[in-house]
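ugh ok fine here u go
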Amino acid sequence: MEEKKHVPKKEFWMYAVGAMGQGMIYAMMSSYISDYYVNVLQLPLMFVLLLMLLARVWDAINDPLMGIIVDRHTLKRGKMKPYILFAVFPIAVLSILMYLSPNLSKTGLMVYSAIVYVAWGMTYTMADVPFWSIPNVITPSASERSSVISFGRTLNGVGSAFPEILFFVSGLVLPSILGASDGLEYNKKKYLIITIITVVIGAALYANSYFHIKERVVIPDSKPVKGEPSRLTRIFKCKPLMLVILMGILSSGRYMVQAAAVHVARYAFYIGPELAPGVDPALKLKYIDASISSVKTIFQVCATVGMFGAMLFMPVLMKKFDYKKIVIVTCFLGFIASIFTTLIGWFTANLYICIPFILISCIPLGVLNVISYAMIGDCLDYMELNTGFRDNALGSACQGFVNKLGNALATCGIVIMYMFIDIDPAQMLSSTSVVAATELTRTQNFAMFSLVSIVPGISLLLCAIPMFFYKISGKYKSQMLTDLDAQRRAKGIIVDEEGDTAVELEEIKAEKSKKKKH
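structure:
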């Protein structure tokens, strides 16, 4: 018998389009902030390294706190979706401020960047944790939840490609419009223009989802009872969830493919006319900027075909195969492809020959982007069945923290590589000169290239290890879902097909109570 569908097509699409808008905004930070801080603002490398690490220490407190707040309270218009409207304006403003370069001293820029970056992370948590908890309350069906997550993550990935497109186009168009006599000022204006366009469109799409989403699974608010395990205790004692989180942390190297691509484009490859000695500085900047845009686009196309191609097939794969098997097989495939990419890069230094293998190595990136959220949902089912509690937002907060930690570790790896191979951004790009990848040593070129070749591959291999100990699959998962459905029916947990608000639900329950008395 075909399982009942709870989410109409329009709502299904509108949630995914909202995810696409969110992806546009997040990609503006994750893919470019390291290049902006290091090469454009030219903040001290050690400062950037410490900022990334210390911000994640705060996230370790802030993200679970946000999850607890969401799980503990139901607002008038729902438990999850009101935060979409709460977060959209501040996250848009802070995203633009992050790429604003005020005329301050170096110390002033460091203080400004630190405040805006940390504030952005806190606000994004408010935009991210409830939003990716919505699939848990939009339908009671595990398979339908997986479809909502899969399609949402796919369009989220599509959204993340939008700033990449702008980056490519701007590299070809803006030098002629803005002028290229001052490399630093040109790059500051370029980043600000890309950010404003991306954020305005992304914020509009994200906010629009609020008006189309309905929360159907209504789990009553619960206050802590003396003697019962705390929410954090339940999370840490949920072994399957801890394995998924460990998988996410070990896969942090996969973020290098996008975060480090612009650095590789600057310092590993050059595509364009020969840069003869004495070439006009403005013309040289124009050629180099076009090369950076082209190389970055090659990586983005590989990521698009590999990641999003995998995402498109994920709904079918997730219905036919266990999640753990999908992770293990695709991650091993990505590791093998990364070895070939590295060897080709070392022996030939030819980016074009590497393309097929870069594409294959991006397949598990798309798989992990989708499947980790679906596995979090299964882990919450497991926790609800075994403890009687379901901390949707806190589970989503764990995944959100892992994502931000992964991006931060990727940025730290990039900064450490700059230090290791002795690249000084201030000497590479200034108001009067710019250095091409061809002017660096072969060792420096390859070391930077390794950030998008062997480093992600090793990370993919490591992240598959926890999956050998993950048990929510096959017959065990089927029985778990059957038992959970029976437990929910016994507890009288509401599945509200109309998506009524919290206040209306209280009225409905009160009316049912009156009828029973009569």
